[in-house]
Hints:
CATH superfamily of the largest domain: Glutaredoxin
Number of strands: 4
CATH architecture of the largest domain: 3-Layer(aba) Sandwich
Bound molecules: FE2/S2 (inorganic) cluster
Amino acid sequence: MNEDFYNKLNKFIENLPDKKNDYKILTFVMEELDCIPEEVKEYICKKTDIFPFTLEGTIKFYPKLNKNSKKTLKICTGRVCGKRGEELLKRLKDDEIISQKYILDEVKCLGQCQKGPNIYLENEVYNIKNIEELIRFLREKE
Ligand code: FES
């Protein structure tokens, strides 16, 4: 997520009378991004001291916060994964179904350079051979 978004989010939280009003914070995020990425949830919890399970409970309770929840998929485009990672990222962005279901992001190393290109999804690193394998893998995960 870009710095501009986090600046807006910080300002929004600072102007709230109740800084722990997670419903209002999450509504703001949905209005800005049309989804609530995992990294943004983590950021909100750190910034406000709201417990992750409290945040998840609020998201589950309100359908408008729940409906477009996307997972973040990070593709390594670091020094070793480099071009192959960039190619995967470009191909995923071109895939209409996948780009609607995932927030696609870059990361500069996942610590498994020799097995790359690598991706990061739901706290796991996966070694990917090619785009066909990656798309099949993502569709099977649904
Ligand atoms: S550069 Fe991709 S895992 Fe290190």
